[in-house]
Amino acid sequence: MNRPAAGGLRELVRHIVQRDVLRASAAKSRGWMVLVLDAAAARVLTPVLGLYDLVEERVTLVESLEKKRQPFPDMTAVYVVAATSESVARVAADWRGPTADPYADAHVFTLDALGDGEMGALREMARKLRALVELRLDFLALEARAFSLDEPRAFRVAPGAARGAALDAPRDAACARKLANLLATLGAGAGVVVRHRAGNARARACGARLLDELARGGGGDGGGGGGAAPGVVVLLVDRADDVLTPLVHEYSYQALVQDVLPVEGAARDRVRVADAAAPGAPPPDDAYVLSDRDALWVELRHAHVAAVVRRLRARTRAVLASHRGAADLRRGRGGDLSLGEMAAALRRLPEFRAATARLDAHMTLARAALAEFQRHRLLEQSQLEQTLATGVDADGAEARPRDVLKAVSRHLAAGADDDRGDRSHALRLAAAYVAAAGGRVAEAERTRLFDALRPDARDARRLRRLARVVADAGGLPTRDDAAALAARRARTAAAEAARTAARRRRSRGGAPTRRLASLRAALSAALSAAGRAANDDDGDDDGDGGDVEHRYAPPLKALVAALCDGDLDADLYPALGGAPDAATPAKRAAVSARKASSRRLARAPSAAAGAAAAAPFSGPRVVVAVLGGATYSELRAAYEVSRDTHREVIMGGSALLAPGGFLASLAD
After folding, report:
1. Is residue 370 part of a domain?
2. Model pLDDT, residue 256
3. CA-to-CA distance for 615 and 538, rounded, in angstroms?
4. CA 297, CA 422: separation in Å to the nearest integer?
5. Residue 623: beta bridge partners?
6. 436 and 422 in a common domain
7. CA angle at residue 102 from 99 to 108, to 5 degrees?
8. Which residues, at least 6 apart from 314, have a Cβ–Cβ distance to it below 8 Å?
9. What CA–CA distance (Å, rounded) separates 644 from 642?
10. If both were cysteines, with which of 1, 5, 250, 269 could 231 make a disulfide (CB 3.0 to 4.6 Å apart)?
11. From the CB of residue 55, how many other CB atoms can be counted at a distance below 10 Å?
């Protein structure tokens, strides 16, 4: 089975484009080339290719297919376009008419397979067509182990829809086709097994369509390899089964940046913010780029934002301490500089500027994110959201519904009287209340919420539609599954502990009564913790004992961990295309992510890319796809499961959701 090269999925796609598109075209051409992209291709290529990559491959100009372009009759045109009739017609139109040819010749690459009609349209330019290749790259490679199918409207709620309200057959078919192309790019030729929640017709239909697409496209045999261990196990999840997770604010650096800062780009990897240390200053012309090539970003993105601030301060102090000219900044302050003062100090050290550019950028981003977090009073709100999600308060006591409603209403009312503008965060809290209640909110509760929130007609419609989605799903099935799984694992652990103790007693000829009482107490404590285990989080590696913790972990994390351990209930999550236990890691020998890919990079990967794949993985690859969109908290959880189980887990979905985008999808 092929695995991504050292930098993961994003580096693999970059290498394919370099090798199969740019270098293949350059080998048949002389001189410089013009790269012509339609909007879809630009979204696919922009996250993986930089200016240096293009110049190195003799690309002198990148142009938009949709815009009028200047002819360059001495240059080769390299078209990368979607396999749609509109884009193909535009390519053919370049070479039609009485005027001279716009380019010396043409190389055409499509993101997906061409239909007969599109193939016929390209016959008109056959005399100048030097290459025609179907790439099967119509997805976004966002990170080493993260992807998007670029279908942001896949979670839509039609008025009056019943169970399966998010079902959208054309978009689900597009998701299945794009997911098949992703698996083919990963080399999933040894068989694919799809797991989905029993009773979820949408996930089952999408899984069946995925296997059909793989069988037709040759990316896999669509049948689990006749009983052999699969190359990939796909877990298909419906966002409608857990609408609570996209609403909960969390404290990891990446999730917070995505939540409160203006993030741009198809990959949501460009941030343009004004420096909070210089009030009134306009945002910079150049955006901060959040990329796997930035080793500091890869290191910090899943850490608690408080730990990020500590690490940045420590590293900045180390830089300043090594420079004699910074002594005046520290004199009289005991070295206790604020984050803003540290960033300013770094900018005054020209000889350190190149080495500390990323450090300065992340200090600016962390400071801006924390400023927005405080401005919208999100600390109190996030604690309320986690109480709603877990059913216990910050002290671990069971939350009483009456007290929770009172606290939520008080927070919403205080926000309604605030003139600071953005009401999306308050709407999220009200939506979280509705979701946590299973969509069944009593009229008195709804009246109290609406009186405090004061929603306009559009926001009120969003809340009603969210309530219908949750009620139609029967609550929050993914959360319920995670809780049941945690309880089962706790019972298994308790039983194993009892058997171990019994064996020890037999070997020692008995045990004191007080030792037995202690054992019973320990077992009782383990069983009582089962209900809480589904919401336990791994915390932060920095030992952030004083930080506000993530009390709520995305339920999907428990399901993915169980799948990697071969412990996911086959009745609750049946398999298509193979045996449910085919994902058990013992069925395959360990394979190094550094050695197994047949697509070698021409250049050595960056330090960040190497870190992303430093540890070997064992067992079949696990691909998790959320129909309706995955969240950044779930992405963080997938990386944690991958680290803890030594399994390669690639997370994504029809989109990576920004919370505001998720709420917007409920509007119409």
Report:
1. yes
2. 94
3. 20
4. 28
5. 234, 650
6. yes
7. 130
8. none
9. 6
10. 1
11. 11
Rounded CA gap, 576 and 197, in Å?
A: 11
Coil, strand, or helix at residue 357?
Answer: helix
What CA–CA distance (Å, rounded) separates 656 from 395?
Answer: 32
Q: How far is CA 446 from the centre of its chain?
A: 33
Say yes or no: 84 and 127 in one domain.
yes
C-beta of residue 637 within 8 angstroms of C-beta of residue 662: no
Estimate the share of the chain in helix, then strand, then coil, as percent rounded to the nearest 5.
Answer: 50, 15, 35
Domain with 364 in it: what CATH number? 3.90.830
> So what's the pLDDT on residue 282?
54
Q: Tell me how many domains the chain contains.
A: 5
Nearest to 561, CA basis, from 631, 435, 496, 651: 651
Contacts of 396 (CB under 8 A, 6+ apart): none
Distance separating alpha carbons of residues 648 and 618, to the nearest angstrom: 7
**Residue 360 has which token pair?**
């300065």
d(CA 383, CA 119): 56
**Co-location of 271 and 369 in the same domain:** yes
CATH number of the structural domain spanning residue 562: 3.40.50.1910
DSSP, res 101: P
Tokens representing 487 are: 């309880």
Q: What is the pLDDT of residue 219?
A: 55
For 568: left if phi > 0, alpha if psi spans -120 to 50, otherwise beta; the answer is beta
Radius of gyration of the chain measured on its C-alpha atoms = 27
Q: What would the pLDDT profile of 443-457 be if each residue is shown by its tens digit?
A: 999 999 999 999 999
Q: Quick one: 457 and 484 in the same domain?
A: no
pLDDT given for residue 171 in this prediction: 86
Give the distance between the most distant pair of CA atoms in the chain: 101
Residue 353: what pLDDT? Answer: 65
Give Cα 665 distance to the centre of its chain. 18
What are residue 109's DSSP bridge partners? 80, 133
Q: Is residue 545 part of a domain?
A: no
CATH number, domain containing residue 406? 1.25.40.60
Phi-psi region of 157 (alpha: psi -120 to 50; beta: other; left: phi over 0): beta
Residues 616 and 600 in one domain: yes
Beta carbons of 58 and 32 less than 8 angstroms apart: yes
In DSSP terms, 81 is beta-bridged to 110
**3-class DSSP state of 452:** helix
Residue 161 scores a pLDDT above 50? no
- For 500, counting Cβ atoms within 10 Å of its Cβ (0-12 exposed, 13-18 middle, 19+ buried), the class is exposed
Rounded CA gap, 143 and 190, in Å? Answer: 24
Determine the structural domain holding residue 390 and report its residue range. Answer: 378-472
DSSP string, 306-346: HHHHHHHHHHHHHHHHT-GGGHHHHTTTTT---HHHHHHHH
Ranges assigned E (strand) in 525-620? 575-576, 590-591, 617-618
- Per-residue CA distances from 140 to 2, 45, 66 (Å): 19, 8, 21
The answer to whether residue 527 sits within a structural domain is yes
The chain-wide mean pLDDT, for the chain, equals: 81
Is the pLDDT at 203 greater than 90? The verdict is: yes
Q: Per-residue pLDDT tens for 209-251?
A: 999 999 887 654 434 444 444 589 999 999 999 999 999 998 9
* Residue 440 · residue 471 · CB < 8 Å: yes
